[in-house]
Each structure stands twice: as C-alpha cells, then as structure tokens.
Amino acid sequence: MSDSNSNGDAGPELRRAHVVIGVISFVLIISLTMVVASALASYKVTINDGISTQTVNTFKDTPEEVLEQQGITLGENDFLDTSAFVKGEDSTLNVYRACSVRINDGDLSEIFVGVKDVEKTLALNGITLNPKDQFEPALDQLVSEGLNIFIHRAFGVTVEADGEKTELETAVGTVKDALKMAGVTLGEDDETKPPAEEKLTPGMVVKVLRVTYKEHTERETVPFEKVTKKTSEMYRGEKKVIQKGVKGKNEVVYKDRIVNGVFESAEVISTKVLEKPVQQITLVGTLRKITIRSGSKPISPLPVPADIKLGPDGLPTNYTRIVDGTATAYSGGGGTASGRPAQTGYIAVNPKQFPYGTRLFVVTLDGQYVYGYCIAADTGGFAKRNSCTIDVYLDTFDDCYVWGRRGVRIYVLD
C-alpha cells in the first residue's frame, strides 16, 4: 500500500514540470520566430550624398523615410535620385546637392542653379536645346560648383556651288565643314569665298569658285621709251629729235584664269624678246637768247672771217659750241703769252679750256656790249684762281673799270 501511495503522489509534480517545459519552449519558439521575421523584414540602403556614402538597415517603405531615419534633409533645389531604390531590397539612393554653375548661351553668360547633370540643370532653368545646337560638356556630365556650360546655337549658312544653293543649319565649324555638310567637293584649283579655313558665322554665304587655267601665246609690240636731254647748244623752246624711236616686238605666254567658266585675269609666265625697242631721244634747248642793245657795235677791231656767218641779230650762226661764263677786263699793252701783241681783239683765256689761237665771239649776256670776234692769245693769274672764264683786253683802264665783271656768252668758232 505504501508503494502505491508514493507513486500516486509523484504524478502531479511530473505533470507540472512537463507543463513548465512546454511553456518555456513555446516562448522560445515565438521569440525565435519574431527574430527571424524581424531579420527578414529589414533591408540595406546605400546613400550617396555628395562626397559621403553610408549604408543603413531599414524597415522604411519610402526613400524619403529612409533619409528621415538617417537625419538627412534636402534643400530647395537638391535632387533625390530614386531610380536605383527598390522597397524591401538592398538598393541605393543618390542625393545631388544644388550648386552654382555658369551657363554661356550665345551672348548670355550668367550664374544658374545646377543639380545632378547638365541635362537636369538645363531643364531646371528652363533652357531648351534645338536639334542642331551643340553644347559642352555632355548632357550626362555631372555638375559641380563653378562648372561652365557652353551652348552653341545653330544658325543658317548658304552654300552656292555649281549653280545651286544649299541651305544648312550648324552651330560651329569652318567653311570647309559647310562644304562637307553640303556634299560639295573641291577640285585642285578650286577656291572658296570666304577661304576654306574661315569660321562660319550666322547668315554667311559660301561661294565655290570652280577655277581652271589655260595658256595662250601672243605677239605684242613694245612701245619705245621717249628720252629728253637738255642741251645748251640750242635756245630755249627749240627741240630736235636726234634719234627716232622704234617699237620692239615680244612673244608673250599668258596663263589665263577662268572662274566658273568666265575669264577673270591673265598672268604673264614668260616673255621672249623678238626685237628690242629703240629709244627716241629729243634734245631740248636751255640756252637763253640774247638781245643785243640797239646801237651796240663790236668793240674788237678784228674783222669777222668770211667763213663765220652772222645772223640778223649780229651773232654767229655757225659755231662748234657755246660757253656761258664771266669776263673781266685788262689793259696796259705789252705782249701776250702766245707772242701776239696785247691789244683789243686778243683776249686772255685758260688755255686748257680755249687753246691759244682759238677763234671766239664774245657778247655780254645782258646784250649791252658786243666784244665781237676775238682770238685766244693770252693768259693770266685768273686762270689759276679760276675767278672768271676770260679776261678781255680793252684800250684804257677807264674802259676796264666801266666793264667791271660781266656775264658773257662765248661762241667757240673752231
């Protein structure tokens, strides 16, 4: 009986132990389930915010909530790129902070708000691009503080070639680029206006010049040169052709320049002289005529030789040359250097200029005195001093005083 009671008393305690163990197991299972469920509900988000990057575990549903969880706020023009965000999956959020950029758009150059890339920045500021516009940097270039964005607006250009006009639209380039766009090729000698390397400008008209060259030969006359020479052997106003001019002949080879089928110019590429031209030489007198004062008679008593002819003005018409110079006078008798007696009609000269015995005819330039026919017979100190041209002999010292120093014309008769 005692054994039976003891077994009966142990039963309830065992049952209570089993209940406790069961409860604890249930709690553990519930906790593990919640932990696993919790682990399965969170996910990782990598946030790129300018130069900083952070990765967070989150249960949040929206990108904005993820940022709020991390205490990240956005400015007025900041841009949150959610294209790489997927709720509940490991993903990425990109935050692009607004900055200042300069947009150069033709004549416009101003500071604007920039964000993310060039495309987003242009859209933010209401700047549109036309299909032919060109820009730099590229639309997907990320912007940063102080970035310069350049927009080159397209403009119209006309290409005229081979009788046709082609209207183009471009933003940059040279004349050469315009020809390429118009499908125009240049030959070896072809040209353009403006030149091929010149930059295009709005409204520019590019003209293509089709250029060809052709040679031809011509025989041409060459005019003679007219030469005028002054001479004191003729009076002023008198002219005399001493050599008649003759035209020459040349064979000339030309290179013709033909533009768009029309002759434009010719260039001489060679010249062959067939006949040389001959100069025409004309003598022009410089001698001033002398008018002899009425009533003036020759001072020299020597008779004029028969072979010397005097004109109506009393001056020689046949002579070898004329010398204009100055004359002084002397007197006193005696002999001369040539052995002739010192007397009127025999004058002193520089024998290097007028050898002794040279026949001369002397008249003052003012026509007041006609010394007349005379002979070079003497010399004196004046020749060494070169103080005058001749020294005429007069009968008295008073005559010499009256004569003084005068301009004279000397006709050389020999």
Describe the protein's architecture and organization.
- The chain is built from six helices and 24 strands.
- With 414 residues, the chain is an alpha/beta fold.
- It folds into five domains: 53 residues; 54 residues, Ubiquitin-like (UB roll) (Roll), CATH 3.10.20; 55 residues, Roll (Ubiquitin-like (UB roll)); 74 residues, Resuscitation-promoting factor rpfb (Resuscitation-promoting factor rpfb fold, Single Sheet); 125 residues, Barwin-like endoglucanases (Beta Barrel), CATH 2.40.40.
- The strands form six sheets. Strands 20-22-21-24-19-23 form a six-stranded mixed β-sheet. Strands 2-1-4-3 form a four-stranded mixed β-sheet.
- It is rod-shaped.
- It starts with a helix and ends with a strand.
Tell me the number of strands. Answer: 24
| Strands side by side in the biggest sheet | 20-22-21-24-19-23
Helical amount among residues, as a percent range? 10-25%
Counting helices, strands and paired strands, the structural category is alpha/beta
In short:
The protein has 414 residues and is an alpha/beta fold. Helices cover 18% and strands 40% of the residues. The protein has helices spanning 2-41, 63-69, 118-124, 175-182, 381-385, 397-403; strands at 43-49, 52-58, 79-81, 91-96, 99-105, 108-114, 134-136, 148-152, 155-161, 164-170, 191-193, 205-209, 211-222, 226-235, 239-243, 248-259, 262-275, 280-287, 321-330, 346-348, 359-364, 370-378, 390-393, 406-412.
Topology of this protein?
Elements: H1 2-41, E1 43-49, E2 52-58, H2 63-69, E3 79-81, E4 91-96, E5 99-105, E6 108-114, H3 118-124, E7 134-136, E8 148-152, E9 155-161, E10 164-170, H4 175-182, E11 191-193, E12 205-209, E13 211-222, E14 226-235, E15 239-243, E16 248-259, E17 262-275, E18 280-287, E19 321-330, E20 346-348, E21 359-364, E22 370-378, H5 381-385, E23 390-393, H6 397-403, E24 406-412
Parallel strand pairs: 1-4, 5-8, 9-12, 14-18, 19-23, 20-22
Antiparallel strand pairs: 1-2, 3-4, 5-6, 7-8, 9-10, 11-12, 13-16, 15-18, 16-17, 19-24, 21-22, 21-24
